[in-house]
Amino acid sequence: MIGSLYFLALLSSTMAWGRVGLWSEGRNETGGSSGDRCTCDAFLPSSTFPIKDLVVVQQTVEEISHKLELEMGKLEDYETKMTSYAEKIIKLTVEIEEMEKNPDAYNEADKGDTKVEIKQVEALIKELQLSIRGSTTVFEPLHIQITAVVAALNRLENTYDRNVVLATRREFIKVQLQLEECERRHQELFNPDIGSCAHTGIIKVSKPIVNHLNAHLNSGYRYGSWGKDSKPVPDRESIYWSSESTSESTTDIRLYTNYKNLILRNYFKYEHLTSSLVGRGNNVIIHDNTLYYQISSSFGVAKLNFTTMKYDSKRIPRASAKLSYANSVSQIFDFAADETGLWVTYATEESGGRMAIAKISEPSFEVEEEWQTSAYKPEVSNAFMVCGVLYAVRTVDIETEEIFYKYDTKTKQESYISVPFERFQYRFSNLHYNPSDQKLYMYNDGYYVTYHLWFNHTAKATVKPPLPLA
User: Fold this and answer.
1) How far is CA 442 from each of CA 119, 140, 155, 195, 307, rounded to the nearest angstrom?
2) Contact 187, 194 (CB under 8 A)
3) Comparing C-alpha atoms, which of 400, 397, 452 is closest to residue 424?
4) 290: helix, coil or strand?
5) Residue 151: what pLDDT?
6) What pLDDT score was predicted for residue 211?
7) d(CA 436, CA 193)
8) Closest to 143 in 3D by CA, of 379, 424, 437, 445
């Protein structure tokens, strides 16, 4: 690839705009027509191709790939050593059981040796845990680098010949998949609490992680939503979905088998919602292979199952059609899914525009229970649910959002908090939480963005050996 890029660089640095010529036969150096030589007249733009920029991008991709290989190596080494230590602990457990059964058969020296071995294994495990926990701090800088690479690739792709950039983009996709796999394995080792609600709430949000740039390579698709199925059916845990639009509506849904195909825009299922089914607003989710969204007619809510293609719609009488989020006139209903099930939020005129939370029965598509909050919806930019707790978000300034309010449906307690986080672009049309990976998904002015969340765990999960160490 570098050789071909070098050739292009030489051409672009020596040739300017000129007359287009074709291959011509039958012309030799003396102007004859013996046919012993072929010549080619070509032209290239006067501005040189940014070979340096592309080489920098390629070098950055290689650097990220190398770092990820090191991290994957650490994880593999960790798993191998933990297996070895677990075997030692099992062996020591057997020895201790023998000592307890036959105390007279062992002297104090034997017992002392066993205790020393236990302490040694304990020290080794602690040292191993400390060595691998540093991997967490590696991921965020890598995400920042990847965001910069995405921007550079799209700038080059939109300005110059896309075919030249395509090879580097393919390599970059491989690196993104490496990072996703590395994070997944790290998460399995150190965050076994996925799906657990043993925490007291969100305490931190990561920087925005840009997963995709300009939907359909067109900056006009400013509105939309994207994410993963919050309750995936078996063997479809890796499926992603997206819905992009040039207006505040939901008309098209695309499903992708995995993250790679999402990036490549290679969908396996496409649904165009007809005029009678079209959605209003962009606060939609896919839950259990079913699209939940707001419809235009009579400001109702609807669901469409992609397995059976069965459609159902309802009206929620108390919901006001006049009260939407601060930056939108169309977000009357906002669907959410968390560890405890399916929800929808809206505002009511009886409460003066305060948000209400409704728990939805998935089989009947009816409201099971409703809670009234103090959050005034016209001041809220978006909201989501985590473990039965509503988190409301508001705009602080041109680049900052803040989780400022929470309401716990279990205790009916509410509080004002401050967890700021950064937007990638000015306006966003969709923000929701996915319990399968504990991430926030945002559609931000045509960009697909995610955020990692940190929780205040009341029972912090750690990697533990089979036997408690003395």
Assistant:
1) 47, 18, 22, 21, 26
2) yes
3) 400
4) strand
5) 65
6) 76
7) 11
8) 424
At 441, list the tokens: 């998904």
Q: What is the DSSP string of 314-367?
A: E--TTB-SS---TT-SS-S-EEEEETTEEEEEEEBTTTTSEEEEEEE-TTT--E
Distance of CA 12 to the CA centre of its chain: 39
Q: Residues 225, 242: contact at Cβ < 8 Å? A: yes
What would the two tokens of residue 290 be?
Answer: 């079913």
Place of tokens 């950039």: 165
Q: What is the pLDDT of residues 175-221, one digit of tens each?
A: 566 566 666 555 555 455 677 898 999 999 988 888 776 667 677 88
Give the SS3 label for residue 176: helix
pLDDT of residue 109: 74
C-beta of residue 373 within 8 angstroms of C-beta of residue 358:
no
Residue-by-residue DSSP string for 57-123: HHHHHHHHHHHHHHHHHHHHHHHHHHHHHHHHHHHHHHHHHHHHH-GGGS-HHHHHHHHHHHHHHHH
Amino acid at 287: H
DSSP 216: G
* pLDDT score for 143: 62
Is residue 6 pLDDT above 70, yes or no?
Answer: no
Chain position carrying tokens 């969709």: 430
CA distance 80 to 272: 49
Which CATH number, 3.50.30, 3.30.40, 2.120.10, 3.30.70, labels domain 199-457? 2.120.10
Q: Could you tell me the pTM of the whole model?
A: 0.63
pLDDT tens for each residue of 215-250:
676 778 889 999 999 999 888 888 999 999 888 889
Sign of CA dihedral 339, 344, 346, 351: negative
CB atoms within 10 A of CB 419: 18
As a whole number of angstroms, the distance between CA 86 and CA 80 comes to 10
Longest dimension (CA), the chain: 111
Spell out the domain ranges in the chain. Answer: 1-49, 53-176, 199-457
pLDDT at 287 over 90: yes
Q: Are 441 and 384 in contact (CB under 8 A)?
A: no
Backbone angles phi, psi at 296, to 5 degrees: -70, -40
User: Residues, the chain, total?
Assistant: 470
Query: Measured in whole angstroms, how far is the alpha carbon of residue 390 from the centre of its chain?
Result: 20
Collapse the DSSP code of 286 into the 3-class scheme (helix H, G, I; strand E, B; otherwise coil) and give the result: strand
Interior angle at CA 357, CA 355 and CA 361, nearest 5: 155
Give 331-349 pLDDT, tens digit per residue: 899 999 999 999 999 999 9
